[in-house]
Specification:
There is one protein chain. The protein has 322 residues and is an alpha/beta fold. It folds into 2 domains: 183 residues, Rossmann fold, CATH 3.40.50; 115 residues, Rossmann fold (3-Layer(aba) Sandwich), CATH 3.40.50. Helix content is 43%, strand content 18%. The strands form 2 sheets. The protein has a 7-stranded mixed beta sheet, with helices on both faces. A 4-stranded parallel beta sheet has the order 7-8-6-9, sandwiched between helices. Strand 7, helix 7 and strand 8 form a beta-alpha-beta unit. The chain starts with a strand and ends with a helix. The protein binds 6-O-phosphono-beta-D-fructofuranose. The site of 6-O-phosphono-beta-D-fructofuranose (F6P) has 11 residues, from loops.
């Protein structure tokens, strides 16, 4: 391995910069070249990349977002797009690529390896924490803390006015942010895509809770909940419980902000591990964290073997808010 590339792809997440920094500085320590590719696979197809060195990643550890920018590339999912990308990599002598992103980005990386023999290593970067083979994804901890701070604020005003709030957090297909922030915020109910929402049961819980003395209620809803998200749900619930419901959509604030210590440390560990793996001749794998240790998983397992929700946490959430 003489030269490698690094890119960030898909939805950005706090801590991606820490991973980029770790990749670049580890490459420097191995005395190999390293290119930063802009805008994910889009930049790869358009040959938009810059050579990086130790100093090019100075001062980025504490910054949210990604200095390499990100994109969701439709073209890379076509054979021709990947052909252009492989051509650009080979032209610059790049024989290994670190992809920091989610499982969609890993599917593209897997194809690049299969079709063009480019060594690829995935680093899990998404606020959704919905990748198989790792308990941790870069940005999840920061997103949860950003959401939690916001939900705590909503609790203050909900309590003052005696109101019911639905707070929608991100997660189109996964309820991890909703479940963890809901527990941490003491939510009266938590609605996630992994569990079918029974609107009658939610309404009964709220009505009974209010009858027995709840002054307010905060329900955390994942954006991908089957009941249709917080706005739709509020209309249905309003009729059933016969009182006003306020809705707050937290949205993209969950993707920004300064990364927490956990995100900076773990992203650094994974960035270092990704280059170690390339130097050891590995490819088509993701580096992740399980039980506190860095582990590797075949890329294809990251989207075929999704982790389920923690049933102990579901029980705990129900127990503590009944
Ligand atoms: O993949 C992370 C994520 O933030 C999801 O939680 C959310 O559904 C999606 O990205 C939003 O994507 P975009 O920024 O492209 O609207």
């Amino acid at each position: 391995m003489r030269t490698i590339g690094v890119l960030t792809s898909g939805g950005d997440s706090a801590g991606m910069n820490a991973a980029v920094r770790a990749v670049v500085r580890t490459a420097v320590s191995y005395r190999i070249g390293v290119f930063g590719i802009k805008r994910g696979y889009e930049g790869l197809i358009e040959d938009d990349m810059i050579e990086m060195d130790y100093a090019s990643v100075s001062g980025i550890l504490s910054q949210g977002g990604t200095i390499l920018y990100s994109a969701r590339s439709a073209e890379f999912f076509k054979v021709d797009g990947r052909k252009k990308a492989a051509f650009n990599l080979k032209k610059r002598g790049i024989d290994g690529l670190v992809i920091i992103g989610g499982d969609g980005s890993f599917q593209g990386a897997h194809k690049l390896y299969k079709e063009h023999g480019i060594a690829v290593i995935g680093v899990p970067g998404t606020i959704d924490n919905d990748i198989g083979g790792t308990e941790y994804t870069i940005g999840y901890d920061t997103a949860c803390n950003v959401a939690l701070e916001a939900i705590d604020k909503i609790r203050d005003t909900a309590l003052s006015h005696g109101r019911v709030f639905l707070v929608e957090v991100m997660g189109k297909h996964a309820g991890y942010i909703a479940l963890d922030t809901g527990i941490a915020a003491g939510a009266e109910d938590i609605l996630i895509p992994e569990i079918t929402t029974d609107i009658d049961a939610v309404s009964k819980k709220l009505t009974e809770g209010i009858e027995k003395g709840w002054r307010c209620a905060v329900v955390v809803v994942a954006e991908g909940d089957d009941a249709g998200g917080a706005f739709k749900l509020s209309k249905k619930l309003k009729e059933k419980i016969g009182r006003d419901i306020r809705v707050t959509i937290l949205g993209h604030i969950q993707r920004g902000g300064r990364p927490t210590a956990i995100d900076r440390i773990n992203a650094s560990r994974l960035g270092v591990a990704s280059v170690d793996m390339l130097m050891a001749g590995q490819s088509d794998i993701m580096v992740g964290i399980v039980s506190g240790s860095v582990v590797t998983t075949n890329l294809s397992k990251t989207w075929t073997q999704k982790k389920g929700v923690d049933t102990d946490l579901i029980r705990l959430a129900r127990l503590l808010s009944s």
